[in-house]
Design goal:
The protein contains 2 helices and 8 strands; from the N terminus they run H-E-H-E-E-E-E-E-E-E. By secondary structure, it is mostly beta strands.
Length: about 180
């Protein structure tokens, strides 16, 4: 039996050793993540739910749930109730736009439509009916997984009511938003 030539054996051995190195070069290396970049797991927030802790301390309630509805856009349902001194109740749907398109994080501007009711100290209606408004705000998502949500905002709301029926009704009121909650 005749043995293969030395050069043939050398070619076969070289190909066997080089094959894994050549195939490894075809796959992409794992991307390098810089220390200031966020892990990929934090980008999938669908919304936030917040309450105003100061409202609870003062005997009322203020909170909202905000959900993503598109790139850079969210929809929120908000409820506010302050009995006694303020006699104020409001429920709103707010549409917010985030110019940075990383909702619900960062700066936003929004428009709201809802229901507003205010009463005099004796319990009689000061004004109630539909309301429209505008709000600007900023949300922070904090922590490694960005689960802690802090929501802020300032705006104004106009009560759309019959001025003959409610002569004491405020035409416009300033609104504020301060909420602490969780993202989901």
């Amino acid at each position: 039996m005749k043995l293969p030539h030395r050069s043939t054996i050398l070619y076969v051995l070289t190909a066997a050793v080089a094959a894994p190195v050549v195939s490894a070069q075809e796959t992409q290396p794992a991307p390098v993540r810089l220390s200031f970049e966020q892990p990929a797991v934090v980008t999938g927030h669908r919304g936030i739910a917040t309450i105003n802790p100061f409202a609870i301390i003062f005997g009322g309630f203020n909170g909202d749930v905000e959900m993503n509805i598109g790139v850079g856009t969210t929809g929120a349902i908000s409820a506010t109730w302050f009995p006694d001194d303020l006699n104020y109740t409001a429920v709103d749907f707010t549409f917010r736009y985030y110019p940075g398109e990383i909702n619900p994080k960062g700066f936003s501007v929004g428009a709201s439509i809802g229901y507003l009711s205010t009463e005099n100290d004796d319990g009689s209606d000061k004004g109630k009916g539909p309301a429209i408004g505008f709000i600007g705000g900023y949300n922070w998502l904090l922590g490694r997984s960005q689960r802690l949500a802090i929501a802020t905002g300032l705006g104004a709301k106009r009560l759309i009511a019959d001025s003959d029926k409610y002569p004491d009704a405020p035409e416009a009121t300033f609104t504020g938003r301060l909420g602490i909650g969780l993202s989901f």
